[in-house]
Each structure stands twice: as C-alpha cells, then as structure tokens.
C-alpha cells in the first residue's frame, strides 16, 4: 500500500515554513512558487514511491545539468518551452488577438549584440566556402494589412554545416552566422548565408542522457532563428524550419509549426550562379514576416530571459 502523508496539516504547515510563508522578509511571489514546488515534489515522491537512490540520482543529475549549461536545452527538449508558446497562443486567442506570423521557441543559443547592417548582410565568415551550400535568404517584414515595415530589425542566427552555433562552438569566429539587418524602405531584408544543418544534442551530455531514458532522439531539423522587432509592433520570436529536412516534423524541441516552413529552392544553373557571384549550385529561400500591432510598450520587447553577452 502506498503511504501518503502530504495532506496532513503538520506536513502542509512544515512546507509553508520551509517556503518562508511565516516570514516577513523575502518575496511573496517567490514564496508562493516555492510552496507549490515543495508540495508537488513531495506528492511525486510519495505517489510514485520514489526510492532514495532515484531521488539522489535526480539531485546529482541537476548538478550535471547546470555544470554543463544544458538547463535551457533540457526545457526545450522536454517541450516546456513549446508549451509556453501554446499557452501564449491561447491567451492571445482569449484576448481576441490573432493574425501574423506564428511564434515559436527561441531556444538556448541566442547571443546578443550581433553586427547591425542596413538592408542586407552576409552571415557567414567564409570558413566553410566550398563545403557549405550558399543560401540567399530574403523577404519582407509587413503589418497585418501587408504594408511594408521599414526600419524593422531582423535579428537572425543559425548553425553551420555541422549543426553548431558560434560562441557555443569556440572553433567558430565571433558572431559567425549571427546578424541584425534593418529592413529597407520596402520592408525588405536580404542575407547571404549557407544552408544550415540540423542541431543534435551532445551525445555525452545530460540532456541526451535524459532523452535516452525516454527512448527519444535529440535532433532538430535545419532551421534559422529570428527576433523581429519594430516600434509599435509586437516583438516576434520565431524560426524558419527548412522544408527539405528529414526531421522537419520530428523535432526534439517541437519548434516546427504550420506557417513556419521555408521552401528551399536549389539552383543548378551557371548563369544564375555567375549573377549571384557564387561557384556552382546554391540555394534560395524567401520568407515574409507579418507583425501584429503592439498593445503595450512591453509587447514590443523580447523577454528578459538571461542570454549570452546581454548588455
Ligand atoms: C537549437 O539550435 C535549438 O534551436 C533549440 C531549440 C535547442 C537546441 C538547439
Ligand atoms: Fe537553433
């Protein structure tokens, strides 16, 4: 028989004390959250009859997770980051807010302060010339009526052909494959980049260790991340997932959504290559972003999530 004690008044009182509810100091919000964490943790332990060995293995796992900086990766892999998007969508719907390009998760690999340029940029540093397929990416940022938004900031980041991101992969140059592009008078942005590869979790890391226990892989389809912002418009965090990837609908982070699939066109025509100033085959992808009007100043800003190199 499963023994349960969490509902006993003395136990509930004990959790209230441990969560600081009997103290004048501290934060009421933090206390309320911690009380709930203690109550739910205790219920899991008694309901699932968590053994001592399982409990301490879990504690040790958290230490490894933090030590390897993978907490942000695990919350993406467990679908919690996607759940937060689904909840935001539901709240928008309840408030009568609709339209625009869908949001999807930021993921753990953004780096603040990428080089800023007007209208166009080359994203890659050329270190994969001859290895990578050149990709020309362009599109417009428009409002809900299709009117161009000039001066919007398109802040984009992507992986290299190995699926690795600069800053986190110290073998890459600073800000490789990370740029901020200001849209021109037609709301247009243009980028020369490379076709990225999908990301895979470090097979030796704690996130993949957890996924292995769940019988899951840790692969993402090839994708490009975006923050799109402009005065008076709702900040958009999203991604384009590349149509030609086997993992398109088998993403360990659940970021692929209808409306966020980029059609990659491969061009194998020497006249076109010469015009584009590239050697041989290249790729093109066009993607427009539609922004909603912001209902508050705060809605124009991205979350305050701690990020690498944030000022
Ligand atoms: C990525 O590139 C990514 O976008 C997410 C969400 C998680 C891990 C790696
Ligand atoms: Fe990514």
TrEMBL record:
SUPFAM superfamilies: Aromatic compound dioxygenase
Enzyme Commission no: 1.13.11.1
Pathway: Aromatic compound metabolism; beta-ketoadipate pathway; 5-oxo-4,5-dihydro-2-furylacetate from catechol: step 1/3
Catalytic activity annotation: catechol + O2 = cis,cis-muconate + 2 H(+)
Pfam families: Dioxygenase_C, Dioxygenase_N
Family named by the database record: Belongs to the intradiol ring-cleavage dioxygenase family.
Gene transcribed to yield this protein: catA_2
Official protein name in the record: catechol 1,2-dioxygenase
An annotated GO BP: catechol-containing compound catabolic process
């Amino acid at each position: 028989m499963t023994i349960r004690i969490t509902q006993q008044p003395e136990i509930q009182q004990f959790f209230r004390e441990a969560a600081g509810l009997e103290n004048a100091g501290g934060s009421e919000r933090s206390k309320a959250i911690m009380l709930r964490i203690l109550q739910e943790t205790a219920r899991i332990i008694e309901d699932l009859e968590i053994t001592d060995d399982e409990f301490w293995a879990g504690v040790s796992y958290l230490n490894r997770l933090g030590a390897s900086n993978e907490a942000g990766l695990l919350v993406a892999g467990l679908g919690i980051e996607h759940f937060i998007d689904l909840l935001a969508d539901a709240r928008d719907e309840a408030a009568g807010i609709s339209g625009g390009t869908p949001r999807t998760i930021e993921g753990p690999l953004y780096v603040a302060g990428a080089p800023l340029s007007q209208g166009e940029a080359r994203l890659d540093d050329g270190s994969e010339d001859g290895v990578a397929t050149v990709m020309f990416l362009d599109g417009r940022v428009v409002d809900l009526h299709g009117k161009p938004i000039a001066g919007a900031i398109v802040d984009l980041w992507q992986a290299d052909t190995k699926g690795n991101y600069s800053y986190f992969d110290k073998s890459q140059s600073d800000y490789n494959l990370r740029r901020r592009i200001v849209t021109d008078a037609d709301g247009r942005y243009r980028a020369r980049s490379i076709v990225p590869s999908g990301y895979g979790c470090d097979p030796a890391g704690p996130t993949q260790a957890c996924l292995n226990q769940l019988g899951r892989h840790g692969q993402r389809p090839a994708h490009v991340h975006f923050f799109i912002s402009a005065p008076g418009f709702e900040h958009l965090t999203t991604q384009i997932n590349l149509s030609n990837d086997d993992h398109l609908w088998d993403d360990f982070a659940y970021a692929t959504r209808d409306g966020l699939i980029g059609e990659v066109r491969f061009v194998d025509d020497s006249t076109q290559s010469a015009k584009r100033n590239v050697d041989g085959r290249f790729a093109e992808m066009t993607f427009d972003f539609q922004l909603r009007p912001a209902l508050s100043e705060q809605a124009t800003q991205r979350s305050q999530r701690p990020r690498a190199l944030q000022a």
